[in-house]
Fold:
Amino acid sequence: MSARFIMIGENIHASRVLKREGKQVVTSPDGRVAVRYTSAGGATRELPVPDAMLSTRDGVKGRIKPVQAALFAGMSGSTRDQEEGRAYLKALAVRQVAADAAFLDLNVDEVSADDGVRQETMRWLIRVIEDVALAPIAIDSSSPAVLSAGLAAARGRAGRPLVNSASLERTDLLDLVAEAHCPVVLSAAAGGGLPGDAPERVVNAMRMVEQASRRGIPLALMFIDPLVLPAAVRPEAARDFLDAVGELRRKLGSEIHITGGMSNVSYGLPARRALNDVFVALAIEAGADSGILDPLVSSPARPATQPGSRVWELALDLLLGRDPFGRAFLQAHRAGELGS
Structure:
């Protein structure tokens, strides 16, 4: 297994949310709602949020999706707004690479329900990011057509793109991957649903490895994703993922990569950063050498939570099932012991 933990930066997703009352959301001098950010050159700038976004369900509930705002501004706004949209997206890319992201995951699925619009948006976004990124992109979508369009559009200036992801429901994507000789995330999903336990994850993942191997894709280009589910929804979720990682590493050896959406485990729970830090450490110990995460927030090289601290131990107990339903963890949160 590679000594380097391969971070797939998840910052450039149209689903990412900011709270409207948060510090990053401001009112610009012209009266518009905007997202304040630091550009790739270090200047403080403001990304305007289109009025149409403020009247959506998210907008009414006080949520703003900054990447989506940047995509709308960059593709269809005024000349000035187009510049801000591109600048915001480029800043996300540059900052993630500086934080050691090996790939930049791009996902535009929430921009529209129209697959044609998604494809056009993905092609535009790839051009913007590849102009500045010193790391290759990862093309991420639930739509095979968007993945195919993105793969065709990628120039690979910083390296071959990663396709995220292929599953047993769409093994035909592996033909495109084999032709492009690019890395691919192999999902353990099957039958239109998520796996229920560790053995099911292993079976599904091994079937995907077999499908990829048949097409001549080498193990070194495969990233198995046994799928991380929220611990708040399924108390065994973390343990199932970790057990699957360990078994897949034993079966497949050191050449293949094992990854996963690490921050999913803390969804719906407080003190997410602490939970994510502990979970990434557990995943690496189990045999994972990669993770889909925000490198500006979670990095195994820069954990915000001190190993052995009370917060660390409480998170560890929750993730390993020693604190059923996180009772002690939640009690500590209510008592103000976990921080933010």
Residues 90 and 129 are 6 Å apart (CA to CA). Residues 79-98 form the longest helix (20 residues). The chain is about 40% helix and 15% strand.
